[in-house]
Every structure is written in structure tokens, then in C-alpha cells.
Specification:
This protein has 28 helices and seven strands. The protein has about 675 residues and is mostly helical. A hairpin with a 2-residue loop joins strand 6 and strand 7. The longest helix is centred in the middle third of the chain and has 40 residues. The radius of gyration is 33 Å and the shape is globular.
């Protein structure tokens, strides 16, 4: 009895010591709205990322390749070496494949288990964006940044894709979050050490996802950020060594062991082909490798960061103004620029005075009988034009004295540095894919969320002054109208694609464009009529993007999957009789999904004569080719079994062919 009272008294004392009662009554209840928001966000994420995750097949070419890696991992129980059709192939480091193999062990190897790691990290990345932005901007603005990150078009697509990009972005964003908290923990050495450890370890995991790109880009962005903030000396601390040590400790062991096991394959595939050659040479010469390839990431970003890319330019401009106003380096550059402009202005004013004096003297000479000099007149006119076009020092000073932003220099500087480094690095690269710059999307979401939140302040002030008709800022108006125009273009593109490439989706594809158009048209109308606030704009557009994306991934993609994968045709020819089948060829067909779904090894060739030469009189051969190549084989007595998704399955019974050739030979002899 007394022991129970003693235990209760201890619990009560600890309860008072840590003030749990106050924590429960104040912190949680005061943040109930935030909890409800995150509950709605997670519900939308589950609805968008996880529902019917395995409904669409694995799309060629990347998803089935990774699926085949996992398939052979589970078959051989060798988790150190990547294999494709029994051959060693070091395409990427194996962390993503380990996660997919773990999901397959729990459930089974299928489309859903292959995409499960991407879906999980797709939920966590917006959460990281919130915690990254929260110390620098208000909680509502940080929540808007999380919504923006989670509803970007490419984020939704990669959340339901069995590729490595979402996993890589998660670990890189966690490294950026850790670096940000490391900077904010100047007063506590223990916290700084912890966040340094977290940043380094996360960078090491990113290295295990896609190679050493993380330990190349992160240090460059950190140095640029420290140069902007004027804290380069902080890079000489022991914390940097901790980051480097734990990043190498986490990422290097697999590279060392793989090189020890298979030095030739590892050096050729991992180092040369997938890193050096891919950076220096275009992997797809027909798509990249030209002079304009350096600018391809600009349209890629504005298409796949849609709809938030419509506001990114103004958000980046606002952040740049904040950085240039508070950064010592930018202030020094601005001062030098101002001095240069002022000096030029003074020189031009002195020059104009000299021209005026010379003009007066010429006028007096003319009155005395001298003629005017046309060269001098033209010089006077030119000087006057230059003088009129020159800005005064007062205007320049007025431009430099920009309004003070609520966002801290450190948060925006790190985000801008990361965006700049990632964008420039993958723009210089000769091989470019739309997913390469995806790691900068969380930082872009941070800046756009901050800017939209700052745009709501003038509207609040106008509301307090009882102004009924509130005209939102021209920059926000331009962003929404641009989104409306892009929605029209997307609708037109969907209609054209459904007519010429995916005729099965002719009745459902245009609906997605109509949804997008309705989103932006409603946003423009509601903001002009002051029916919603600017703070609620990300929520409004985010809900619309959930509806649009749900229609895209649940209705359109499964229909497109018929042509984007060979799952359907594999399921058909596996049911057909396989007796006396001694060869299986694919002709000019790059479809890795064949190997994943059929679990067979095919002889892939680009020469039809090779197929004919390899046949004997007793063989029965099946050939898979594109529909456009089917006539070439049917003209040589191949019978068509089925055709779907742009792929044709042919059967060639050489015994019947030889009998026919013999009979025709006898007729010739006769």
C-alpha cells in the first residue's frame, strides 16, 4: 500500500518537475490546428501516394531494371552485387534496392513493394521541409512550404515510381536540415556535434543511393552559403571533420568491398560509365549534347515543379533581395557598383558641362562670323542622350534600400546556394534527365512558401483599413494567370497525346486538363473577390493538385501502362503453349520489363539475318518486336500470335518452313 503511494508521489513529482501538465494543456492544445493540418496532409499523402500503388505496371526502362536487380538479389541472396540476367551490372549503389528487397521480403516482389520506399520517403520529404523552414518563418508559412513540396508534379510522379530519386532527395534534404540546425546551435557544443553527425551520416546514405554526388554537391553549397553569410571561418571547426568522417564511414564500405569483389566490373560500370562518361558524354545523343542542352533544365523545372514554378521567379527574386541586403559580400559588391555608377555619372556630367561650354563658345564664335562644326553638334547630341539615359545616384540608392524581409539570411542563403549548385552542376553535365535536378525541389518549395506567406501581409494591412476591393499584387496575379495559361497548354497536350499515342485514354485524359484549368481559374476569381486569403492559396491549389494527380495516377497512367510496359503481352504469351520452344528473340526492342515479368533470358538482336541464320529445321521460335517491324517477319512465313501495347508476338515454326521450301524446290526441279 505504502509502495503504491510512494510510486504515485514520485510520478507526481516528476510530472511537476517537467511541467507535463502545462505541456499537455498549452503546447498540444495551442497547436491543435497545426496537428489537424498535418493529419489532413498525411491523409492526402496516403490517398495520393499509396492508394493502388501497384495498379500500374513497372514502366520501361528504369523501373524494371531496378526490379530485376531486386529479383536477382533475392534469388542469389547476394546483396552486395547488382546483377541483370545473371551478369554483374553496377548501375547504382544498392541502398534503394536493399529497401525494396526488404519490402519484398515482408510482402512479395511486385509493383507495390518496388515503389513502397519512394512512397514512404515522399511523405517524409515535405515533413523535412517543414522542420527546415520552421525556425526561419512562421509555422503557417512552413506548412505552406510542406504543401508546395508534396504537391509538385514531379514529386507526385516519383512518389509512385520504383526509382532512386526520391530516396536520394530525402537524404540530401535531411543533410540540409541538419546543416541548418547545426548553424542555429552555436550556443550548445553537444547539439552542434549531434547535427554535424546527422548531416554527415545522411550524406553517406545519399552516397549509397546514387554515388558520390552528395559529397560533391553538399560541400560546394555549404562553402557558397558560408561565403554569402560571411562565416567562412566556421568551416575550420572540428564539426566539419565529423561530417566528413561519418559520411565516408557510412558510404565508403560498400564501394571498397564491391571493388575488392569485382574490380573490373566495378571500375567500368560504376566509375567510368555511370559517373565519368555520363557527365562528360551524352547518354542519349539524340536528346542532349547540343549547345541548347545547357538550358534544358529551365523548361524541365518549370514543367515539373508545376504549379508552383509559376511563383518561383518572384520568390527567388525576393530571396535574392534579402540576401543582397544582409550579406556583407553583397553589400561590398553593391557599394563598389554604386561607386562605379556615381563615378561614371560625375564623369558624364563633367563631360556634358564641357560640351555646354564648347557650344556657348561656338555660338559666340558664330555670332562673330565663324561656322558651326557638325562633328561637335553630333557629339553634343550623343552626350545629351547618354546623360538622359543615365540613372541618378538617388535612384540607385532607392533601389538598394529594399524592404526588410521576415526570413532570416541563413535559411534563404542555404536554400539559394543549394538550388544554384544543383542546377548549375546538372546543367553542365552532358547527360541530362528531368529527375536530375529534383533534389533542389524542397529548397524551391521553402522559398515559394516563404514568399507567398509574405505576400499576405499587405492584404492584411488593407483589410484592417476597411478596404473592400483588395487588388492582390501584380506578381501574384502574373503567377496565377501564367498557371492558367499553362493549364490550357497541358490540356491541349493531353488531347494531342491521347489522339496520336494513347488512343485508349481519349475520353479520360482531357479531364485532367480541365481540372487544372478550373484550379487556377477559381484561384484568380476567389482572390480577386477576396473570398480566400493569400495564406490559404497553397492549400487551395494543393487540394486541386491532389484531385488532378489522383486522376492522373489512378486513371490515366494505368491506361498508358499498356504501352509503357510489356506486362500484358508477357501474361498472354506465357499462357500460350511452349512445347518445342528452343529460342526466344527480341528484335530492336529495349524493354527490360520483359525480363522482369517473364523471368526468362532473351536473345536481343538488331539484325534479322542473325535470327534466320541461327535457326535449324527442328526449332520453334518466338519473336517479340515493335508493330512497325512485324511485317518484315510475317513476310517470311511468321505467324502473328497477338499484338498489344505497340509490341507484336510472332511465332516461327521452322519445320513447316523447311517442308514448304522442300516442296517448292521439288516443283522447281519438275
Amino acid at each position: 500500500m505504502y509502495r503504491n503511494y510512494l510510486a504515485l508521489s514520485i510520478v507526481y513529482s516528476q510530472f511537476q518537475k517537467f511541467r507535463l501538465k502545462g505541456l499537455l494543456s498549452y503546447d498540444i492544445l495551442s497547436n491543435m490546428n497545426l496537428i489537424l493540418r498535418f493529419t489532413a496532409l498525411f491523409a492526402a499523402a496516403w490517398f495520393l501516394y499509396f492508394s493502388n500503388l501497384g495498379k500500374a505496371p513497372l514502366f520501361d526502362p528504369d523501373e524494371p531494371i531496378y526490379g530485376k536487380f531486386v529479383q536477382e538479389m533475392l534469388q542469389t541472396s547476394d546483396f552486395m552485387t547488382l546483377r541483370f540476367n545473371g551478369k554483374i551490372w553496377y548501375d547504382k549503389p544498392p541502398l534503394f534496392h536493399w529497401l525494396a528487397a526488404f519490402a519484398a521480403k515482408i510482402t512479395t516482389l511486385n509493383e507495390a513493394s518496388m515503389r513502397l520506399p519512394s512512397a514512404i520517403f515522399a511523405v517524409l520529404v515535405p515533413l523535412l521541409v517543414y522542420f527546415w523552414a520552421q525556425p526561419f518563418i512562421k509555422a503557417k508559412a512552413a506548412f505552406c512550404s510542406a504543401i508546395i513540396c508534396g504537391t509538385a508534379l514531379l514529386h507526385i510522379i516519383l512518389a509512385r515510381s520504383a526509382v532512386t530519386d526520391m530516396t536520394l532527395t530525402f537524404f540530401l534534404t535531411f543533410s540540409l536540415l541538419s546543416l541548418s540546425r547545426w548553424e542555429l546551435s552555436e550556443s550548445s557544443a553537444g547539439r552542434r556535434r549531434f547535427w554535424a553527425f546527422a548531416a554527415g551520416t545522411s550524406a553517406g546514405f545519399a552516397m549509397l543511393v546514387k554515388g558520390p554526388v552528395s559529397i560533391v554537391l553538399l560541400p560546394i553549397a555549404l562553402v557558397l552559403h558560408k561565403a554569402i553569410t560571411g562565416k567562412l571561418k566556421s568551416l575550420l571547426s572540428a564539426d566539419i571533420l565529423i561530417m566528413l568522417f561519418f559520411s565516408l564511414l557510412t558510404g565508403l564500405p560498400w564501394f571498397i568491398e564491391s571493388y575488392r569483389l569485382h574490380p573490373d566490373e566495378f571500375w567500368h560500370d560504376m566509375v567510368l560509365v555511370n559517373h565519368v562518361y555520363r557527365f562528360l558524354q551524352p547518354e542519349h545523343p539524340g536528346q542532349t549534347g547540343y549547345w541548347f542542352s545547357y538550358f534544358l533544365n529551365i523548361p524541365n523545372f518549370f514543367i515539373f515543379f508545376f504549379p508552383w514554378s509559376m511563383f518561383f521567379i518572384q520568390a527567388a527574386k525576393s530571396s535574392f533581395e534579402t540576401i543582397s541586403r544582409q550579406s556583407s559580400i553583397f553589400q561590398w559588391l553593391i557599394e563598389r557598383w554604386n561607386k562605379l555608377i556615381i563615378t561614371r555619372k560625375e564623369e558624364k556630367s563633367e563631360q556634358s558641362e564641357r560640351h555646354k561650354q564648347s557650344a556657348l563658345s561656338e555660338k559666340s564664335d558664330a555670332e562673330s562670323g565663324f561656322t558651326n562644326n557638325p562633328t561637335t553638334e553630333s557629339m553634343n547630341g550623343k552626350s545629351g542622350e547618354l546623360l538622359c539615359g543615365c540613372e541618378s545616384a538617388e535612384n540607385i540608392e532607392k533601389e538598394c534600400s529594399l524592404p526588410v524581409s521576415n526570413c532570416s539570411l541563413q535559411g534563404e542563403s542555404l536554400a539559394m546556394s543549394w538550388i544554384t549548385v544543383v542546377f548549375l552542376f546538372f546543367s553542365i553535365s552532358k547527360t541530362q534527365l528531368i529527375t536530375y535536378i529534383f533534389p533542389l525541389y524542397p529548397a524551391a518549395a521553402f522559398l515559394v512558401g516563404k514568399w507567398i506567406a509574405s505576400e499576405s501581409l499587405p492584404r492584411i494591412n488593407k483589410t484592417l483599413n476597411n478596404i473592400k476591393n483588395i487588388d492582390f499584387d501584380a506578381s501574384l496575379d502574373r503567377g496565377l494567370k501564367s498557371g492558367l495559361y499553362v493549364s490550357f497548354i497541358i490540356t491541349l497536350a493531353l488531347i494531342i497525346a491521347s489522339i496520336f499515342k494513347f488512343p485508349e485514354s481519349i475520353y479520360v485524359a482531357p479531364i485532367a486538363g480541365v481540372i487544372l484549368t478550373a484550379i487556377f481559374a477559381s484561384a484568380v476569381y476567389f482572390l480577386k473577390k477576396s473570398l480566400i486569403s493569400v495564406e490559404k492559396l497553397p492549400v487551395f491549389i494543393g487540394v486541386g493538385m491532389v484531385v488532378f494527380s489522383f486522376w492522373l495516377v489512378q486513371v490515366i497512367l494505368p491506361i498508358a501502362g499498356i504501352r509503357g510496359s510489356t506486362k500484358e503481352i508477357v501474361s498472354c504469351f506465357e499462357k500460350s503453349p511452349q512445347e518445342n520452344l528452343s529460342a526466344f528473340y527480341t528484335y530492336r526492342l529495349n524493354r527490360p520489363s520483359l525480363f522482369f515479368y517473364s523471368k526468362q533470358v532473351f536473345s536481343n538482336t538488331k539484325d534479322e539475318e542473325e535470327i534466320f541464320r541461327s535457326l535449324t529445321a527442328t526449332q520453334s521460335v518466338k519473336i517479340l518486336c515493335k508493330d512497325s517491324h512485324a511485317e518484315m517477319f510475317t513476310a517470311k512465313e511468321c505467324s502473328k500470335i497477338l499484338s498489344t501495347g505497340g509490341v507484336t508476338l510472332l511465332h516461327w515454326n521452322t519445320k513447316n518452313l523447311s517442308n514448304k521450301s522442300n516442296s517448292s524446290g521439288e516443283q522447281i526441279k519438275k
